[in-house]
Amino acid sequence: MSRMMKKRSAKAGLPPGSLVYIGSGRSPNTRITLIDYDEHDVTEREIRNVADCLAFKNSESVTWINVDETKEPGLVADFGKVLGFHPLMQEDILATDQRAKVEDHGDYLYVVLKMLSWDNAKDEMAIEQMSLVLGGTYVITFQEEAGDYFDPLRERIRESLGRIRRQGADYLAYSLLDMIIDHYFIVLEKLGDRIERVEDLVMTDPRQELLREIHRLKRDMLFVRKSVWPVRELVASLRHTDSPLIARTTAPYLRDLQDHIEQVIEGVDAYQNLLSDTLAAYLSTLSNRTNTVMKIVAVFSAVFMPLTFITGIFGMNFRHMPPLEWDRGFTGTLMTMAAIGIVMLAFFVRRRWL
What we know:
7 strands, rod-shaped, alpha+beta, single chain, Beta Polymerase, domain 2, 7-stranded mixed sheet
């Protein structure tokens, strides 16, 4: 999992609009793919030169340009020159610790949010930032990492499944956001299974390792909350925007999208509360176990205290001690000590202290 906060020290002192990648590593494997479609045809190809995108900017068909591994400032600058993107928007594409938001730049909308997925190989949550630019007939997506996140959507376009081929670029943007929010549910389910498993172990076998697992889950849930909460505001802004780029026919789908993000947020809040309760139960269980141990130690101390007193008396170096002269002094003393111990234990049991 990535850091909770990305380091911005590389941008300290630079003027606004400076293109500096904030993230982990660089990649020479940037890949630009293009899907152009209408109700009847689909065209797919890989783009080598950013200038080739210009031909699709004002086409009547819908064009989806996807950029994988957006880590090179020069590439983003090329898109800015060719398509006229605002310098501050270019800066936000490379600053991968952005809060989810939507910006209206007139002839295009800029949307940025976190993509969450579950890495089955590492069995942990994976996070990356996606920037989306919605124009009149095009959508451009900038992904921080390469992957098959949107492959199901590409298949729907190729096979003309559903209404996506009959709708405009705004519906494509909605479909991308819907897929991202669907992955929020998947990540939340995975984390929820872990939280519930830890909760069961706290009740049955509260080991020391559970404390580390609880704190790891609390950190993951905090990052999920930080990622998804602003998305509610983002979707609400898209719903209520007066931009001509969002058609009225897309409004019902955005309402459904807002319902989904509300469900995700409710799930995040519920699991955070459950984690807090689990941590409190773990600490309470440890406290009860410590109290039980201390109670047993105190009982044994109380039982042995009079016995220690008796042995202390016989350990004194006096010349005349009558019990030492008795034939059965040793046996009688042991029996007396045993009787005292049994009586005290019976008293503790009767009082339900044991």
